[in-house]
Amino acid sequence: MAGGPGPGQFDDLRLAEALRAGDVIALTEVYDTYAPFLFDYCHGLLRDRIEATGALRNCVIAAREHVAMLGEPDRLRGWLYAVARKECMRRRDSPNRHIGQEAPEAEDDLSEEQISRREERRLLAHSALAALNGRQREAIDLAVRHELDAVDLSGVFGIEVEEADELVTRARGTLSAALHAALIAQNHWKDCPSVSALTESWPLSPQTSSTLVRHVASCPTCGTRETPSLPADRLLAVLPIAAIPGDLRLDVLTAATAADRAENRRSIAAWTEPFDEYGWPVPYEPVAARTRDRAPARRRGPLIAAVAGGVAAVAVIAVSVSAFSGSGEKTGATAPAPGVSSASAGDGSSAASPDPSRDPSRTPSTSASPTPSSSSPTPSKSPSPSKTPTSKPPTTKPASPKPPPPHRPDPPAPGNLSVAGCDMGRDASCTITIRAVGGPVTWRVTGTSGDLDAGGSGRLSAGQTAGVTVRRTNGMCWVPKDGAVSFTSGGSAPVAYC
């Protein structure tokens, strides 16, 4: 997150490989490294501390169960956001979701004067962000504050890399125009009667902000007015961050590792399925959308390219822009802002709506916004002007055309899963051997028959083998029995026991 550890400080590849090997210590390290940022993101989408806590817990569990499917382990961080987002969208679609208990804002060691200046800057940020639709707010929040690049965003939203890059570019352009208009409204509202009439309350509402942007673009007085340049990362850095509960760590790690919760973990992990050919979760489809025939979701584009993501982060706040909205396919509903956390819901492609009967792309009344804020902005007849430099900004050179993100080669054709049964005799367990034939295979145990218990999932490269441990669940065993373990491929491995 902007102001925190940057992407270069995350050891994604090492942690992903350690998770694949079943290293419990690595799971602890993953939590300590990523959980505070993921919680803030989940809180922004869900606008509720309890729901965000549950979403983070399920995200960690699903990540441990499915990490073997990730084709690019060096993108573990972005993949975790995709897993978290799908879980949040599922929760937003539930009629039984918990609402109304926002998390407190993470504490900062600031003086009263610094807090006062930050509150003034927050009002400005909220007013500018109000002009963006829900998906744009979520995209710029992830790109700027959470520092995800276009490749990560394509996986999070389930869109092509080029589309993700264009989404962020448009969001930055809209934010820049809205910030320019908000600065005019904040510092020069007396110079134009139309601006004065539009800005009777502060921060600006989404409708007022959009109207003000159009007015400034066409007004002879406002159109020539110069305002100081303020980078997106500095603007969004003042937005609130939801404080992760201190007692959540033990709860999550216990739920993800305790032997007596294995069945529960398999059920939670199943909610993240299905995955695309690169091992990223396919975006959640709301109940309302699933009842209609829809065209298949687009294929995510190249993931290999390292697309420079430079967009800083964004968060939307309370009242007028109360959370990220927009979870639908392309509808940019006005997104709310996270109360004390930062999250977003897209402008129409992925965020789910709290009301399952509504299109998720529409902004729910209590949806998360990218930036949490412990205190809601206080309206005032006129914005509190702050002295800002009026010097003319330096002329910028025309930007050279940006090369399109490179495409990753087509994934290899999937193979078939070959399974071989086992005989445990009077032992308590035996091992089934599975092998990928003719190409890579993503597998998962789907069930057992007889007095047997088995589980697991993963991804095998062509020719690679793995073992699945089967245990009998009965006590004393007197006569030979037969059972079986079934897999997602449709294969079934016979097991003899007793």
Question: How would you portray this structure in words?
Answer:
The strands form 2 sheets. Strands 2-9-8-4-6 form a 5-stranded mixed β-sheet, with no helix packed on it. It is elongated. The chain has 2 domains: 1-410, no CATH class; 416-497, Immunoglobulin-like (Sandwich), CATH 2.60.40. It starts with 11 loop residues before the first helix and ends with a strand. It is of the alpha+beta class and 498 residues long. It has helices spanning 12-20, 24-46, 49-66, 76-92, 112-129, 134-144, 150-157, 161-187, 193-198, 206-218, 220-223, 232-236, 248-257, 262-270, 287-290, and strands spanning 416-420, 422-425, 429-437, 441-449, 452-453, 457-460, 465-472, 481-487, 492-497. It is built from 15 helices and 9 strands. The model is unreliable at 2-9, 291-323 and 325-398 (pLDDT under 50).
